[in-house]
Design a protein that fits this description.
Main location: cytoplasm
Distance between the termini: 47 Å
CATH architecture: 2-Layer Sandwich
Shape: globular
Order of helices and strands: EEHEHHEEHHH
CATH class: Alpha Beta
CATH topology: Nucleotidyltransferase, domain 5
Catalytic activity: Endonucleolytic cleavage to 5'-phosphomonoester
Number of strands: 5
GO cellular component, one term: ribonuclease H2 complex
Keywords: Cytoplasm, Endonuclease, Hydrolase, Manganese, Metal-binding, Nuclease
Strand order of the largest sheet: 3-2-1-4-5
CATH superfamily: Ribonuclease H-like superfamily/Ribonuclease H
Number of helices: 6
Enzyme class: hydrolase
Length: 198
């Protein structure tokens, strides 16, 4: 079972989705949950079915003390690199919370100071703490919804299904059609990319 809180401070959990994708934004969420918040289903979003994530999203958004979700798009990812873009997305998500947290817990091992608020990086934090797990669900569901929307513009890449991840199908579509404005140009799109004029 997930731990409820990291410590006694008014804390926000933050996580991102889409870091390893070839297309689309990296998306982060930040969530402050009530101390008495309980949910038996909530876990790291990667451990949940799409149906369960979509059920949890409105539940988290309704009961959270505060939350924010932010996209950082491919052009910015290419400019900053994916690590800095992920941290920017987390900071932007935190910006949306009206009453700032007194402590931040971050999934993973890298973060940058945010307005002087103390923070702790926790490897696999989305499988340990409820607020990080909640952030992982919001980041994943909001990003998936965005990818399904842009799928309508470029259905040949099947982003509705692969969400921009480097599946065999996605790479085959890049090989056939080239890249779009939604692809990250700083990422190695194909194993033989250096020999392709894309």
């Amino acid at each position: 079972m997930l731990n409820k809180i990291f410590n006694d401070f008014h804390e926000a959990g933050t996580d991102e989705a889409g870091r390893g994708c070839l297309a689309g934004p990296v998306t982060a969420a930040a969530v402050i949950l009530p101390k008495k918040f309980e949910n038996e289903i909530l876990n790291d979003s990667k451990q949940l079915s799409e149906t369960k994530r979509n059920v949890l999203r409105p539940y988290i958004e309704e009961l959270a003390i505060g939350f924010g979700v932010a996209h950082v798009y491919p052009e910015k990812i290419d400019e900053l690199n994916i690590l800095n873009a992920s941290i920017l997305a987390m900071h932007s998500a935190l910006d949306q919370i009206k009453n700032p947290p007194r402590f931040i817990i971050v999934d993973g091992n890298r973060f940058k100071p945010y307005h002087g608020i103390p923070y702790e990086c926790i490897v696999k934090g989305d499988s340990k703490y409820m607020s990080i797990a909640a952030a992982s669900v919001l980041a994943k569901t909001h990003r998936d919804a965005y990818m399904e929307k842009i799928h309508l513009e470029y259905p040949m890449y099947n982003w509705k299904r692969n969400k921009g991840y480097p599946t065999k199908e996605h790479r085959e579509a890049i090989r056939k059609y080239g890249i779009t404005k939604y692809h990250r140009k700083s990422f190695k799109q194909l194993p033989e990319q250096l020999r392709l004029d894309i």
